[in-house]
Amino acid sequence: MTSRRPSFALRRRTSGVAALLAVALATGAGCGVLPEPVDRGDDSSTGGFQPGAAGIGDPYFPTYGNGGYDVAGYQLTLRYDPDSERLDGTATITATATTDLSRFNLDLAGLVVDAVIVDDTPARHSRDGNELVVTPATGLADGTQFTVVVDYGGRPELLTSPDLGAGGFHVTDDGAIALGQPESASTWFPVNDHPLDKATFDIDVTVPDGLAALSIGVPGPTSSADGWTTWTWSESTPLASYLTTLVIGDYRVERGTHAGRPMVTAVSADLPEGGPAEQAMARTGEIADYLESVFGPYPVDAYGGVVVNDDRIRYALETQSRPVYGDVFFDSGPVTWVVAHELAHQWFGNSVSIRHWRDMWLNEGFATYAEWLWSEHDGAATVDEMFDREYERIDWASPAGDPGPAGIFSQSVYKRGGLTVHALRRTIGDDAFFRLLRTWTAERRNGNASTEEFVTVAERVSGQPLREFFDAWLQGDTAPAKP
Q1: Res. 474: pLDDT tops 70
Q2: How many Å apart are CA 15 and CA 155, to the nearest integer?
Q3: How far is residue 193's CA from residue 185's CA, in Å, rounded to a whole number?
Q4: Is the bond into 238 cis (omega within 30 degrees of 0)?
């Protein structure tokens, strides 16, 4: 383990927010009081400006995300001190109003907001649970592009659910792991936290020298000063916020290129050097190339993976371009099925994202099927063998197509979803099936989609009526006949 630095006070950089406040205090009349923002509320006499909704409208999770605007990109400048477990950040968010907005919400859990500016003007802000409510000085007209800068900090906390577990900012002995689904991003930056609002990311993370600060996308330069090192990352392919990550600590980091894109893999220094985890990560490019031959062009800007050693992370997550794996997957050797699963999500879930969380089988069913395809390609069990095995095991009383909020990570969503994919292949034939996969990933690239939309495309590509098929395989409570 890297030796720990002695504790010392953080020196926060002067953000745009702080600088603007300083100018206001220096130049404003009467003790530098900031101008009072105009809250148009719902008064139609002021032009009909309305508050943005405090949820994006997901049937399963009504409070997730927010309405009234669409984010184009996030620029995060972060500083984390493992000794104090304190995170300080400035988030610059570029967005467009999708209605006449008097105010809007951002999701932010636990952290303290110092100040907010909207389009270079101080904005009023308040907290309502895990919602940051921002009231700009003037309303934002429908179609207006605007920029929000939020200066914030504190000790991050996890979000917990009795059905879905804990996600978000996990503090570790020498750093942190920010990870989780369906929500996690709001524990470390202000965000519109729902897959419907995909955006690009630029992330700068400053940590004590000797520690890695890993994230998504293309790596930029690192720089060091005064005992601190800044790592930079950029992802220009729009992604859902839960697909971001931040992993800080003592890691063995390997940098290279694959197929003309950056490849960055990292394994916790607590795990054996050259051991099963590193052996599995070394096959990332090979597995991605095979999946590309099936699904179409690789859809994101970089390759890689991060293996963490933490008893709380007993899962893997398809964080964009650089999935995070719990070390538990490699206890029995350099298994690669999990790598195939998470890399398949770069197409199914990341590039083509779900419209609502009830559509989760579109992510997990296809990623499960990718495991089966890779197994056969790698000389292990065939797809037919795995289909027959899971067909006998699955609980057909549990639906995959609309599993309920507590069931989005159920075996039905994963395994019954995979069964549905292979049954579809047998029903429409290999030619139409593989053409459908490439059509779907091409036509919906960088967007969102629902089960209904997938059924429509499947019928168009195959030339067959398929609604009864999908109803039986995704929703029925008895085993459909094998095609």
Answers
A1: yes
A2: 19
A3: 7
A4: no
